[in-house]
Amino acid sequence: MIGAWLQRHRISILFLLALLTLGGIFTAFKLPVALFPNISFPRILVTVDAGDRPVDRMVIEVTQPLEQVLRAEPGVLSIRSTSSRGAADLSVNFAWGTNMVTALLQVQSAISQQLPNLPAGTSFNVQRMDPAIFPIFGLALTSPHQSLVALRDFAYFQLRPILSSIPGVASVEVLGGEKAEFQVLVDPEKLRASNVTLDDVARALAANNVVTAVGRIEDYYRLYLVLSDTRLKQINDIKHTILHSGSNGIVELGDVADVVEGVAPQWTRVTANDHDAVLVNIIQQAGANTVLITQEVKNQLAIFKNQIPKDIAIKPYYDQSQLVIDSAFGVRDAIIFGAILAAIILILFLRNLRMTIIVAMILPCVLATTILLLHLLNMSFNIMTLGGMAAAVGLIIDDGVVMLEHIMRRLSEGHQGAPTHGPVLSASMQMLRPLMGSSLATIVIFLPLAFITGVTGGFFKALALTMAAGLIISFFYVFLAVPLLGEKLLKFADAKHLEDTGPWLGKLHLYYQKIMRMFFQKTIWILVIIIVLIIVGYIAYRQVGSGFMPHLDEGGFILDYLAKPGTSLTETDRLLRQVEKIITAIPEVDSYSRRTGLQLGGGLTEANTGDFFIHLKNKPRRNIDAIMEDLRSKIELNVPGLTVETAQLMEDMIGDLTAVPQPIEIKIFGNNQTDLQKAANQVVSILQSITGVVEIENGIIISGDAINIEVDRVKASLIGLDPDVITRQVQSQLMGNIVSQIQSNEKLVGIRVWTTENWRNQIQQLQRLSLKAANGHYVSLRRVATISIQRGQTELTRENLKSMIAVKARIEGRDMGSTMKAVKAAMQQLSLPIGTYIEYGGLYQEQQKSFYDLLVVFISAVLLVAVLLLFLYEDFRVLFSILIIVLLSLTGVFFGLWLTGTELNIAAIMGMTMIIGMVTETSIFYFSELNTFAEEHGMNELIIAGTMRMRPILMTTIIAILALLPLALGSTMQQPLAVAIISGLIFSIPLVLLVMPVLYYLLLSIRK
Q: Among 43, 415, 551, 747, which residue's Cβ finds the most Cβ atoms within 10 Å?
């Protein structure tokens, strides 16, 4: 009935499939290209600024109230806070799958309602932690002659507008450089002699630099707007600003101050390739095409080239699209190479070009239609979807091979010269049930992945969905297109030729039958083989190290650094100039950029910390891990006083997004901060003795020292001053105030009223600062205040309302599983005070959660396959025969991982799970052949079924292995997955053909 329908509508079906293929090819050029799948990380970062108050007060007055409010919000799982002098960061974590736009609004609303209860002047910023906040492309601007002011102005006013107009660009950030300003450097003694204060100077400049409408006049039928314009236009205008006039004459600003062109005080520094630099970061919109954006940026720079000053060099320092393109090309090459290898196997086994062409035509059609479906699901080309397509190549070809091989065998049973459409369609209908069952066996294993959360779910759902979509589409193409193409292209002569197995396959059949008869006569050998496989599998499992995410060579890495607390920007810069010489001396380094007081994502930090991004030359070169280790050891040896960490950008980015940047994190909880710090130092000492643990941080972060001015309220009041007036006068002299602005072309240049440098650059001079009292007299600051140096305060960290210190470390040259096992064993010697306890966090915690989730997926996949097998056969003996073989194939997975030195990470476990469906698929085809015989299956029927299925089983398995081989040999996210699948498939061939028939034969002896 279905065959007749196919025959009747064959033209329309083939035309529809052709349209879907063409639609997929067209869509491939429109599908967004990105590094990651579109993942919404469930984390919101709240940054609070509450002025300048001690850390303990900050915790009580600001941090704790906000923690209480935010903890009550729906969906909040945990809160981690870090409080320092006058500032706090709160990381609010939600459940995966939460609508983060709604969550962001809830957090903003909750803090806004609490804001009136916080100290006056408290401000906050709320930000979603999302991949879109990190730059996808970065430019470094350097010049041997141009000033940093000119570089920044060029980047901000000329380059930024051009790049912002590119479709898909969310924002363009400009980091580094200097901002020009006019500085009014007042001499306090001249001020005093002229009876003028800094406030008088500020008011005079502000009053003499305004433009305002003062009315309208209607005259001669026209309406005029009357403007009062007293704006300052140049530096001389500032100098001649009148401060005071009277009987003694006029006092101009130039009489009491030097007016100079300067730059704003700078507490950050940016360098690139041995020069001070300005960095331009391109931030893309969510769902935008990374490759197209970066290409358009390069195109715009090429068009704009003639307008770029000759002495300004613009060089990319970071290009995320390169990693995307390399991954895409790697997967593309894997698909092409795998398809070519599969075609060779088809020709060797089928020895027929027409049959090979039919199967080869299916592959691009299925992949193109899969791309069309990805477009409809609002997905993108990324490292996971592309990897899913590459991993599905072998499975797609397998379906076509099985269908075609079955058709040809049934066709060979007909008569020469008879029409082909009847036998071909009839044979395809016979394969409908086993083909559907085998396809479902592979597809159902992906269903439990829909319930996985965390980083694993975010990344591998995209891969699983791509593979499932490809297999579903493959089933329909094979069921509809292969028979229709076969009836037109295939002949009885092709089938007869196929039945001639050839000498080598015929000999293989004879050997197989001989071995099988021996196994049937001595079934104890099968039990021995099973026991040996279980033992080998257990030994291999114990030897395989465990990790988290697959490791890639991204061609560049982040170097985070930290100088001692309170180190000045100048001193930090001096140390980093030494680091830059070390970096440039490494032959594999192509370029670098450095931020001090800033981060790659643009966030502000202290002047003693920041990061480098180091871009490496293309391969061949040393492995990136060896380069990072070499650089870190040289810095530790040659630049004492500087602590460094290295991480590849993807690892660093995921760590920032999930707030678990290091693999090892030992969280120490307790109520006493002193006890926590002692315990942290003990943990550091223990970790230093463990092989492979590097870059250890004790988690005790101390801010820089502070100069504390404590006003004596009694003394101040006696001379008519209050603490607020004193604070403002001190601030004006130390920091200066921007009191007005002058327009210079398209920018506004600030006017800063300040004191000369010799009055504010040393601590001793602070005591002599002049304060004007209410009676007009001047007093020094030391007359009304006590000045002391306050040691830097320790930042306080809390998690879920409990005080905590987190000791962090990275792992080098060792897998995470064995390292953490050693860490846990070593922590047994840790002696903690009562009320203090430890927990393990970091990437290890995420790994354990992911492994648990994937274990649930694995068990669920086995159970779903079991249900499917029972629906197909309604026979527990068939079910147990297949499931035992499936589980024994895992020995191959662990043995392959052990042999290749591949870690058992989430990608490898995904491959292990996929083996369930793939081995089940092969087993189903065996039983589909067996069920063509009588109800009672004897030894001869089991041997014949294996003989008849040997060629398709060998073909499909070898094709699947060869299709995955390029992924296994490459350096991609899918390498562990490919290694796991290939290893399991290699073991599955003898298990399905040799062990499974004997197992089934033994189970047949058990009464139904």
A: 43
Weakest mean pLDDT among 303-317, 379-393, 478-492:
478-492
Report the mean per-residue pLDDT for the chain: 83
CB atoms < 10 A from the CB of 225, how many?
Answer: 9
Sign of the dihedral defined by the CA atoms of residues 682, 688, 691, 696, in that order: positive
For 495-538, the pLDDT digits (tens) are 666 665 556 677 888 888 888 888 888 888 888 989 999 999 99
CB-CB contact of 140 with 277 (8 Å):
yes
Amino acid at 263: V
- DSSP run (H or E) holding 655: helix 649-658
At 934 the pLDDT is 44
pLDDT band at 417 (very low <50, low <70, confident <90, very high): very low
Tokens 């066709």, residue?
411
In this structure, are strands 747-755 and 180-186 parallel, antiparallel, or unpaired?
A: parallel
Q: What are phi and psi of 799, to 5 degrees?
A: -135, 125
d(CA 581, CA 273): 10
What is the maximal distance between C-alpha atoms in the chain?
A: 128
Q: What is the DSSP letter of 117?
A: G
Q: pLDDT at residue 952 above 60?
A: yes
Q: pLDDT value at position 536? A: 92
Q: Bridge-partner residues for 559, per DSSP?
A: 612, 646
Phi, psi (deg, nearest 5) at residue 268 = -130, 160
Asked whether the CA dihedral 379, 380, 384, 388 is positive or negative, the reply is: positive
Provide the percentage of residues in the chain whose pLDDT is more than 70. Answer: 92
Give the mean pLDDT of 781-803: 82
pLDDT digits (tens, 9 = 90+) for 325-375: 877 777 777 777 767 777 787 777 766 777 778 777 888 888 899 999 988
Long-range contacts of 188-193 (CB under 8 A, 24+ apart): 188/733, 188/755, 188/759, 188/769, 188/770, 190/255, 190/256, 190/257, 191/256, 191/770, 192/770, 192/778
Is 878 strand, coil or helix?
helix
Q: How many CB atoms lie within 10 A of CB 124?
A: 20
pLDDT tens, position by position, 625-652? 889 889 988 998 899 888 888 888 777 7
Please say if the pLDDT value at position 23 is more than 80: yes
Whether 346 contacts 959, CB under 8 Å: yes
In three-state secondary structure terms, 747 is: strand
Paired residues of 785 in beta bridges: 711
CA distance 152 to 165: 19
Three-state secondary-structure class, residue 719: coil
How is 329-385 classified by DSSP, letter by letter?
A: HHHHHHHHHHHHHHHHHHHHHH--HHHHHHHHHHHHHHHHHHHHHHHHTT--B-HHH
pLDDT above 50 for 1008: no
Sequence-separated (6 or more) residues with CB below 8 Å from residue 483: 3, 6, 403, 407, 424, 425, 427, 428
Please, which residues have CB within 8 angstroms of residue 506's CB and are 6 or more apart in sequence?
none
- Does an H or E element contain 753, and which? strand 747-755
Cα–Cα distance for residue pair 997/650, rounded to 1 Å: 47
Asked if omega into 620 is within 30° of 0 (cis), the reply is yes
Lowest-pLDDT range of 689-693, 771-775, 782-786: 771-775
Structure-block tokens of residue 711: 């006003």
Distance CA 123, CA 230 (A): 35
Q: Is 177 helix (H, G, I), strand (E, B) or coil?
A: coil
User: How many CB atoms within 10 Å of residue 504?
Assistant: 9
Let me know how many helices (H) and strands (E) the chain has, helices first.
Answer: 35, 31
Give residue 740's identity as a one-letter amino acid code. Answer: S
User: Nearest to residue 613, comparing CAs of 665, 578, 637, 648?
Assistant: 648
